Amino acid sequence: MTVTKEEQEVECQAQIAGQNHLLSARGLCKTFRDEAVLDDVDFDIDAGEVVVIIGRSGSGKSTLLRAVAGLTEPEAGDVCLNGRLVRRNGERTPEWEQGASQVGMIFQSYTLWPHMDVMSNLTLAPRKVLNMGRAEARERAITALGEVGMGSYCDAQVSQLSGGQRQRVAIARALMMRPKLLLCDEITSALDPPVAAEVLGVLTRLKDEEGLAIALVTHDMAFAAKAADRVMFFSHGKVKVNATPKEAFEQCEVEELRQFVDAVR
Ligand code: ADP
Ligand code: MG
């Protein structure tokens, strides 16, 4: 029996879920050295939602974000992004480029080019990748830097910025591509608590003012409790808890999560 393209699409769960969500991933699997680092993971995020991902080191949090961003190729799984089926049975679809361009990712260690000024860090990729003109790229950069409170640092050298300032510039650089979803992997782990709070404050402002969806891996339980719409607890490549912060932190019956929260507090 031949299955028509339409029938195939209807049976794709990620696509069905993607009609309600900005991002829907279904059945993501990734194995490293015979270990299931992502073990049949489902992950949804809505426009303007902040999802905080917590879990022990090595539980698969970074791999999940990297698989969504396409920095790692999952062996299985479907992903639907803003209505486009971008991955099916682990493979990128022809819609991949269009969908993935709406996702930005930021990492713990500074990934800016230290020998360049802030403006060049922001404009280089759009000019090369999108062939954007110099004036338009500069204009976008000024807006993006303004959004992260770094408007007066256009001409500063990256090497002269503090850690918190660099992470704000890294956020601005991700904003250059006008993403709908920002994936943040322990972006404040190297920062002192007050500076970390400032950087996280930038993210909540972007959510509130721009409607950006944010998936954030952090050990900052205070931020998770205060700013998350949803908390996902990861363990051995599986989502063990997916709940509101109140449910996750105050009402949760999952002993493993309680132990984890006690350990990081
Ligand atoms: P987390 O971010 O929760 O600390 P990761 O997703 O980084 O966890 O890693 C989960 C597991 O996958 C770890 O055991 C790690 O060693 C392994 N792993 C991650 N990336 C790779 C890789 N590129 N090659 C081999 N093993 C990897
Ligand atoms: Mg990690």
Description of the molecule:
The protein is α/β, with parallel strands linked by helices and 265 residues long. It is 40% helix and 25% strand. The chain contains eleven helices and eleven strands. It has a six-stranded mixed β-sheet, with helices on both faces. The protein has a five-stranded antiparallel β-sheet with strand order 2-1-4-5-6. The longest helix is centred in the C-terminal third of the chain and has 18 residues, at 193-210. The chain starts with a helix and ends with a helix. It binds adenosine-5'-diphosphate (ADP) and magnesium ion. Magnesium ion binds at residues 61-62, 185.
Lay out the secondary structure:
Blueprint: H1 5-11, H2 13-18, E1 23-32, E2 35-45, E3 50-55, H3 61-69, E4 76-81, E5 84-88, E6 91-92, H4 96-100, E7 103-106, H5 118-129, H6 134-147, H7 163-175, E8 181-185, H8 193-210, E9 213-217, H9 221-227, E10 230-235, E11 238-243, H10 245-250, H11 255-264
Parallel strand pairs: 3-9, 3-10, 7-8, 8-9
Antiparallel strand pairs: 1-2, 1-4, 4-5, 5-6, 10-11
Helix pairs in contact: 5-6, 5-7, 6-7, 7-8
Keywords:
11 strands; binds adenosine-5'-diphosphate; 5-stranded antiparallel sheet; alpha/beta; single chain; ATP-binding; ATP binding; 265 residues; 40% helix; binds magnesium ion; 11 helices
> Strand content of the residues, in percent?
15-25%
Class by helix and strand content? alpha/beta
Ligands bound to this protein structure:
adenosine-5'-diphosphate, magnesium ion
Could you spell the SSE succession in H and E letters?
HHEEEHEEEHEHHHEHEHEEHH
**Large-scale geometry:** globular
Measured as a percent range, the helix fraction is 40-55%
Strand count: 11
User: Low-confidence spans: pLDDT under 50, at least 5 residues?
Assistant: none
What is the averaged pLDDT score?
Answer: 92
Biggest sheet architecture: 6 strands, mixed
How far is the first residue's CA from the last residue's CA? Answer: 57 Å
Number of helices: 11
Determine Rg (CA atoms, Å).
19 Å
Numbering strands along the chain, what is their spatial order in the largest sheet? 7-8-9-3-10-11
Protein name: Amino acid ABC transporter ATP-binding protein
Main location: membrane
Membrane topology: Peripheral membrane protein
Keywords: ATP-binding, Cell membrane, Membrane, Nucleotide-binding, Transport
